[in-house]
Amino acid sequence: MEDLKTKLKVQIIEALNLQDIKPEDIDDNAALFGDGGEGLGLDSIDSLELMVLMERQYHIKVEDPREGRKILTSVQSMADFIKSKQPA
Amino acid sequence: MAERVYITGVGMITAIGDDVAGNLQQLHAQKSGLGYTRYIDTVYKNVLPVGEVKHSNQSLFELAGVPIQEGLTRTTLLGLVAMREALQQAGIGDLNAVPTGFINASTVGGMCDTEKVYFDITDPEKDGSFLKFIDTLDCADCTQRIADIVGFGEHIATISTACSSSANALMFGARMIKQGLYDRMVCGGTEALTRFTLNGFNSLKNVDKQFCRPFDQQRTGLNLGEGAAYLVLESESFAKANNSRILGELSGYCNTNEAFHPTSPSPDGDGALEAMRSAMAMSGITSNDVSYINVHGTATLNNDISEGKALERLFGSQVPLFSSTKPFTGHTLAAAGAIEAIYSLLAIRQGLIFPNLNFSEQMEELQISPVTTLMENVTVNHVISNSFGFGGNNASLVISKYEG
Amino acid sequence: MKGKCYIQGMAAISPQPTFEENLFSAQLLYTDNNLLPCKEPDYKPFIPANSLRRMSRMLKIGLTTALKAITDSNLTVQGPIVTGTGKGSLQDTEKFLKEIVTYQETALNPTPFIQSTYNSVNGLIALQQKCTAYNNTFVHRGFSFENALLDSMMLLQEGSDHVLTGAFEEITAEHFYIKSRIGFWKSEQIDSRELLLHNTPGSVAGEGAAFFMLTQEPTDQSYAAINGLKLLYKPSAEKVLSTLQAFAPEVDAVITGRNGDCRFNHFYNIVEQHFDNIPHIPFKHLCGEYDTASAFGMWLGANLLKHQELPEAWFAKDQHPSKPINKILLYNHFYGEQHAFILLERV
């Protein structure tokens, strides 16, 4: 699980071109979206990009943007969702 | 005192008809033009519904009255069909008899045809007649081809503001008339379905796999469509001196920007509200004068909330009758503003309010719902037609009855 | 279009060092492969990192030029934004076209599609400036900037206090190749500094952005007045001459869009012969040929009117005007199809 989360962070940074951010800067539970000053301050286009990442890297398709928003709350929630979709 | 701007000719082609009469007939019959594509090469052929014009390019050449040739894209052909009808209806034989400008609108130009040969074009090993399509990719190509074939030699321009493009073309033309630059302008837009735009909107996850459901709680997105529409606009003094048949008036308009997000409107509809309010002010009408609103109503999650909120804020508990006609035609992007301006004119002239097809459940965010069945024998004096798009580009038009 | 407006602020990113200080001592940058690319500035002082990360080249060039023109004007109140571009963000269009094929239409990144839309730069400027006023984008080859200018002049006449007007264009290697297949560029490789000496078909490719803050009223800071605009679509040579005669400008210099393409030089010959006793100032050896190159020409003309000089290295000694320049005619056409006359005046 830790490996998956670290890998996800690297992939997120690459997919969204987060130039000044390192994987260790991203807290597992920090909010990815929103302007609150905390978290990464991503927007709805980033959320679409992250769904592309899930599909290309993990072959998980998120159809409904409303559902997507929940899955993409944090790195933790993304990792949980990916685990739940992978065969045990 | 600036001139009033009258509409003296209209022409169109959409998924529900090859001309204005054909469109009216299907609107009246409440028959949607949505279905599955026959002409785009896509993996979504049988998955994502579209509003496709029911003609192959070959048959469009015939409708457009031009010999089959390389280099004329579907965008151009659709535009030509609509243009010929508009000019004919306005009784314009020789375009050069009166200086006439042409303002066109397009979102992706001739992409419909260039995307089929793009990789041949970029391959130095390949040569052939596809090279005739090289310069058709940009938005000016269709405008100039149409202009050259029907004979526009004066001011020409092409506007691209995404889904509000042809509404802005109408506005620009009307303003040129009011400035006294021309007495007659032909304005509108043309859009052909492409694999590019279909995949583009699909990548935004806002294309519905079912027929689109504007203003419905269960809506999940739009269906793309194609078509073209042009309106002949004339100054009041010219129209009267020329004895033109006046169909209606373009009495108000406004263009605003959301400045909120690259692809989403503000959730409370600030831009939409301002566009409608200013267009009404220009037209000199109040809320009570609005008989019908042909809403943008794409059926995307964001548009319908934003537009609905704007309606509630502007009109309070007295929101006029409204419907989206996109379940008939699909969202025709650059052509939508002009197509729906003609539908607005038809509502006035025929005393009809068109139904918002596929609606069953009111949105939880709103207190209002659209007209769901055809209403006949209604007195329609003023219609607002909304077009809102990417990049925050909003446009509202007011079309009014001519009481001549 | 009659009516007068003033250039209160402006900025250009181009293949020359136009974005930097000390314009008049700028060097002359050139190419010998027929493609003049923009000299791009550091975007970080202009665009927040969180916005910059997603933006493609055209968006950065367009937005940054617009922001600098706004700053240069010292105007803070929002007004309409009108732009022109022939091709928009080609890089994004090409990328999305390719990804559709590579990924067989599944799991596509939306960003290139969004940025490929022609109004994306305008939308970004509005977003960045929180500007909810009128917003329009013209996309018509050599009439793109010109229609934006016409729209802006109409807005000023209709009562707007000021309008931000601009143009932007990029060239990619792929698009350079595409256009080479239909004769846009010279088939022989030339030194761009000698563009006008090569009397052969085609020109050299260029790109760039230029933005202007236009106002109803002049100030001490104004660069120039725009005093007239006339467009001609696919005119005959006779029509160009008769229009010029009817337009009848009395000017001190002609800024000419001459681009070394022997197929269309005759139009420039007509205009230059009509004004045979005054300086003819070319600019395509500086910016290359592209749909909205006339915006660069207007930027150059406005600088000349305000400062009464031209960057020394950009022109031969005898090309620098020796008398005061109070009125300029800018004449440009794009491959013989879209012709534009713009009248500029000293303030």
From TrEMBL, chain A:
| Full protein name | Acyl carrier protein
- Origin species, per record, is Chitinophaga silvatica
| Domain of life from the UniProt record | Bacteria
Report the InterPro entries cross-referenced here.
ACP-like_sf, PP-bd_ACP
**SUPFAM superfamilies this protein is in?**
ACP-like
Q: Which residues form the Carrier domain?
A: 2-86
From TrEMBL, chain B:
Which GO terms of the molecular function aspect are on file? Answer: 3-oxoacyl-[acyl-carrier-protein] synthase activity
The protein's matches in PROSITE patterns, at most eight in alphabetical order, are given as: KS3_2
GO CC terms: cytosol
Residue ranges constituting the Ketosynthase family 3 (KS3) domain according to the UniProt record: 1-401
InterPro entries xref list? Beta-ketoacyl_synthase, Ketoacyl_synth_C, Ketoacyl_synth_N, PKS_Beta-ketoAc_synthase_dom, Thiolase-like
Gene Ontology biological process: fatty acid biosynthetic process
Which Gene3D superfamilies does the annotation name? 3.40.47.10
Q: Which UniProt keywords apply?
A: Transferase
Per the record, the similarity remark reads: Belongs to the thiolase-like superfamily. Beta-ketoacyl-ACP synthases family.
Question: Which named protein is this?
Answer: Beta-ketoacyl-[acyl-carrier-protein] synthase family protein
Phylogenetic placement of the source organism: Bacteria, Pseudomonadati, Bacteroidota, Chitinophagia, Chitinophagales
TrEMBL record, chain C:
Give the organism, scientific name: Chitinophaga silvatica
What is the protein's given name?
Beta-ketoacyl synthase-like N-terminal domain-containing protein
SUPFAM superfamilies, alphabetically? Thiolase-like
Give the residue range of the signal peptide. Answer: none
Molecular function in Gene Ontology: acyltransferase activity
Q: Which domain of life is it from?
A: Bacteria
Q: Which InterPro entries match?
A: Ketoacyl_synth_N, Thiolase-like
Segments forming domain Beta-ketoacyl synthase-like N-terminal: 44-176
